C-alpha cells in the first residue's frame, strides 16, 4: 500500500502530461483560433491531416508527414497570435507570416527556441522589441522584421547571442539609437535602411554597401558620405558673452549667410542644367547623323565553314552581326574586365549550335535571340546575344533594366556583362561558361561516361532553386522575375553548380513577341488566359526538374526545335496517379533509387513530388520558390531548412 501511494503522484503527472500534449492537427487548429479573417485557411479542418499527401493544408511545409514550416503569407490575416500551440510542433523550424495585417507588439515567437528562420515583414507590428528577445533563439539564422512600425533600440541580443545569423532585415521601421556591434562572420544579407538610427557604423558591418544604411541621416562612417567627427570636450566650444542683443545678432548673421550660400548654389545648378541641355541636343544631332552612316560589321565564322581560308573570312556574310550605331558598349558588370564594341568587332565569333551536331537535336539558340561566342583581344571569352525583339523600348528604360540585372550577384545566376543599344536590335553580352549547358548535358550524344549521376542532378536542381529564389526576391517587382527558365539557359560551372541565365527580360521584349520568346508563356494559365505571374516561373522550374529526372526533352519549351518533345507534365502526372512513375525516370536515376541507399530513394521521390506540384494546372496550388527551397534542402534537424547562398 505504501508503494502505491509513492507511485500515485507519478501516475497523475503522466496523465496530466498526456492531457496537455496535442497532435499537430490540434495544435494548428488551436493556433488558427487566435487569428481573424482566416478564409484562406479553410483547408485546416479536423477531419484531415496537415501533411496528408495531396490534401496538405495550405501554408504548411512538410517533411515526411511532419510540419517543419509555417508559411501563411499574403492572406489578409490579423489577430493576436497565440504562440503557445506552436510549441507542440517539435519539428517547427521556420515561420513566415509576411504581408498580412497583424499589428501590436511582436508575438512571443522567442518561446520557440528551435526556430531557424522567422519572417515577419510587411505587417503593422509596432512598439519596442525587448533587448533580450532573441537571447534563447541561438539556432536563428534568418530574421526578417522589415516594413513594420517597430520603434526603440535594435535588440542587443540580435548582435550578441545569435552566432549563426545570416540574414537580418530591419528596413522601413522606426528604430532609433546606435547600431549594436554585429560581429557575426556568417552575416551575408543585411538591411537597416529607412529608420532613425544614429552614430557610427560598427566595424562588423563596414563590409556592406552604403545602401543598406540609407535613410538614416544620423549615421556616419564606413562607406557613407558623412564622416564621423570625434570632437574633444571643451569647457566652452562656443563662447557666448555679452548681451542677448549680441546673441540675436549672431543668429541673423548665420541666417543671412545660409540664404546667401543657397542662392549661389541655385544659380550654379541652373547654369549647369542649361549647359547639360545644350550638350544633350548636340548629342542627339550627332547620333542622328551617325545612324545614316554605313554599317559596321562583326564578322562571324560558323564552325566548319573555314574551307575558303582568308577569302572566305572576307566574303562570307552568312553569320554577320551588323551594327548601325557607333555608340560603344555599356558595361553593367566589370568583374571580367572592361572592353569596348571595337574589341567585339575585331574578335572571331562562332555561332553556338546544336549539342550533338545534328538537326534532330534541340537547338540551344532561339527564344530571345541568336547566340555567338567571341574571344576578345584581352583573352576574355564572351557570349554575344543578338536580340531583335526589343525594338519598342526606349534607351533609358533599357539602360535601367539591364543595369539592374547586371548588379545582381549570386553563385547560381549568370548576370549580363554589357549591352549595346540600337533601335532595331540589341546586343547582350554574357560571360562564356566553358562547360556545356544543361540542355547539352541531358540531350547531347556524349556517351554513358558523360551521363550525370543522381548526386550531380540533385545538386543542379538545388542550385537552380537557389538561383530562382534569389531572382524572385530581388526582382519581385516583376510579374516574371525570370520568364525564360529552360535547360538551354542553365550552364554548369567547373564544380557542377548551375548558373541560371537570361532572366528578367519580359518588360523589354515586344508584347507581341513574348509568347514566342519566353517559355513562361507555355504555362497553362498563359496559354489559356494570357496571364503570367511568378507562379509561371515556378511551372518552368517544375518542367526543368522533370526533364532532369526523366532525361526527356519537354514539348513545353518555347524557342527551341522540339525534335519530338514529350509533354512531361501530362506524362509524369498520369504515371504518378497510377503509381508507375519509377518506370519513367532516367536509367541513372532509377539505378540510384533501386540501390540499397534508402536516403537516395527518398530524395528522388521528394524531388519528383516537388516537380509535380510545381507543374499543377492551378497556379495557386503551386509552391513558391521559398517553399521549394525549404523542401529541397531538408536533411536533418541540425541543418537550416532555408539555405540560400549569396
Automatic annotation (TrEMBL):
Transmembrane residue ranges: 252-272
GO cellular component, one term: membrane
Region of interest (Disordered), residue spans: 277-322
Membrane-topology descriptor: Single-pass membrane protein
Record-linked SUPFAM superfamilies: L domain-like, Protein kinase-like (PK-like)
Keyword Lipid biosynthesis recorded: no
Domain Protein kinase: 357-642
InterPro entries assigned to the protein according to its UniProt record, in alphabetical order: Kinase-like_dom_sf, Leu-rich_rpt, LRR_dom_sf, LRR_N_plant-typ, PRK1-6/SRF4-like, Prot_kinase_dom, Ser-Thr/Tyr_kinase_cat_dom
Tree of life domain: Eukaryota
Subcellular location as annotated: Membrane
GO molecular function: ATP binding; protein kinase activity
Keyword S-adenosyl-L-methionine carried by entry: no
Signal sequence bounds: 1-21
Record's protein name: Protein kinase domain-containing protein
Amino acid at each position: 500500500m505504501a508503494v502505491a501511494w509513492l507511485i500515485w503522484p507519478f501516475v497523475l503527472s503522466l496523465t496530466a502530461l498526456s492531457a496537455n500534449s496535442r497532435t499537430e492537427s490540434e495544435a494548428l487548429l488551436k493556433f488558427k483560433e487566435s487569428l481573424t479573417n482566416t478564409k484562406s485557411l479553410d483547408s485546416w479542418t479536423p477531419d484531415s491531416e496537415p501533411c496528408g499527401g495531396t490534401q496538405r493544408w495550405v501554408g504548411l511545409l512538410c517533411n515526411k508527414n511532419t510540419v517543419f514550416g509555417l508559411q501563411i503569407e499574403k492572406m489578409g490575416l490579423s489577430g493576436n497570435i497565440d504562440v503557445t500551440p506552436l510549441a507542440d510542433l517539435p519539428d517547427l523550424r521556420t515561420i513566415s507570416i509576411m504581408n498580412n495585417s497583424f499589428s501590436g507588439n511582436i508575438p512571443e515567437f522567442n518561446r520557440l527556441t528551435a526556430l531557424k528562420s522567422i519572417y515577419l515583414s510587411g505587417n503593422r507590428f509596432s512598439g519596442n522589441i525587448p533587448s533580450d528577445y532573441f537571447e534563447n533563439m541561438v539556432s536563428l539564422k534568418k530574421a526578417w522584421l522589415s516594413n513594420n512600425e517597430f520603434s526603440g533600440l535594435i535588440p542587443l541580443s540580435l548582435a550578441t547571442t545569435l552566432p549563426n545569423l545570416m540574414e537580418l532585415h530591419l528596413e522601413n521601421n522606426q528604430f532609433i539609437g546606435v547600431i549594436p556591434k554585429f560581429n557575426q562572420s556568417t552575416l551575408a544579407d543585411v538591411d537597416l535602411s529607412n529608420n532613425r538610427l544614429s552614430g557610427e557604423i560598427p566595424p562588423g558591418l563596414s563590409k556592406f554597401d552604403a545602401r543598406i544604411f540609407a535613410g538614416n541621416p544620423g549615421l556616419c562612417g564606413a562607406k557613407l558620405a558623412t564622416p564621423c567627427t570625434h570632437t574633444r570636450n571643451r569647457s566652452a566650444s562656443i563662447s557666448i558673452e555679452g548681451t542677448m542683443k549680441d546673441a540675436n545678432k549672431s543668429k541673423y548673421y548665420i541666417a543671412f549667410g545660409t540664404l546667401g550660400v543657397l542662392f549661389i548654389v541655385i544659380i550654379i545648378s541652373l547654369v549647369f542644367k542649361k549647359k547639360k541641355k545644350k550638350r544633350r541636343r548636340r548629342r542627339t544631332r550627332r547620333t542622328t547623323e551617325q545612324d545614316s552612316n554605313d554599317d559596321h560589321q562583326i564578322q562571324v565564322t560558323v564552325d566548319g565553314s573555314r574551307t575558303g581560308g582568308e577569302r572566305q573570312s572576307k566574303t562570307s556574310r552568312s553569320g554577320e552581326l551588323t551594327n548601325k550605331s557607333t555608340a560603344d558598349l555599356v558595361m553593367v558588370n566589370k568583374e571580367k574586365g572592361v572592353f569596348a564594341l571595337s574589341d567585339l568587332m575585331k574578335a572571331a565569333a562562332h555561332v553556338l549550335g546544336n549539342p550533338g551536331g545534328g538537326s534532330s537535336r534541340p537547338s540551344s539558340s532561339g527564344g530571345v535571340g541568336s547566340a555567338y561566342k567571341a574571344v576578345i583581344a584581352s583573352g576574355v571569352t564572351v557570349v554575344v546575344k543578338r536580340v531583335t525583339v526589343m525594338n519598342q523600348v526606349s534607351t533609358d528604360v533599357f539602360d535601367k533594366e539591364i543595369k539592374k540585372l547586371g548588379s545582381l550577384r549570386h553563385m547560381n545566376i549568370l548576370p549580363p556583362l554589357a549591352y549595346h543599344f540600337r533601335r532595331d536590335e540589341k546586343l547582350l553580352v554574357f560571360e562564356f561558361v566553358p562547360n556545356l549547358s544543361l540542355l547539352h548535358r541531358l540531350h547531347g550524344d556524349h556517351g554513358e561516361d558523360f551521363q550525370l549521376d543522381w548526386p550531380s542532378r540533385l545538386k543542379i536542381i538545388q542550385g537552380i532553386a537557389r538561383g530562382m529564389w534569389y531572382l524572385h526576391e530581388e526582382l519581385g517587382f516583376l510579374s516574371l522575375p525570370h520568364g525564360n527558365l529552360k535547360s538551354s539557359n542553365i550552364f554548369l560551372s567547373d564544380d557542377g553548380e548551375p548558373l541560371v541565365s537570361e532572366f528578367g527580360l519580359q518588360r523589354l521584349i515586344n508584347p507581341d513577341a513574348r509568347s514566342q520568346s519566353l517559355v513562361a508563356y507555355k504555362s497553362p494559365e498563359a496559354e489559356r488566359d494570357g496571364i503570367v505571374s511568378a507562379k509561371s516561373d515556378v511551372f518552368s522550374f517544375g518542367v526543368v526538374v522533370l526533364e532532369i529526372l526523366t532525361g526527356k526533352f519537354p514539348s513545353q519549351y518555347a524557342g527551341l526545335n522540339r525534335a519530338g518533345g514529350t509533354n512531361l507534365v501530362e506524362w509524369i502526372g498520369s504515371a504518378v496517379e497510377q503509381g508507375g512513375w519509377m518506370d519513367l525516370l532516367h536509367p541513372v536515376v532509377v539505378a540510384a533509387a533501386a540501390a540499397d541507399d534508402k536516403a537516395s530513394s527518398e530524395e528522388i521521390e521528394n524531388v519528383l513530388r516537388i516537380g509535380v506540384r510545381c507543374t499543377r494546372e492551378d497556379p495557386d496550388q503551386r509552391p513558391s520558390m521559398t517553399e521549394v527551397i525549404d523542401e529541397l534542402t531538408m536533411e536533418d534537424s541540425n541543418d537550416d531548412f532555408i539555405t540560400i547562398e549569396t
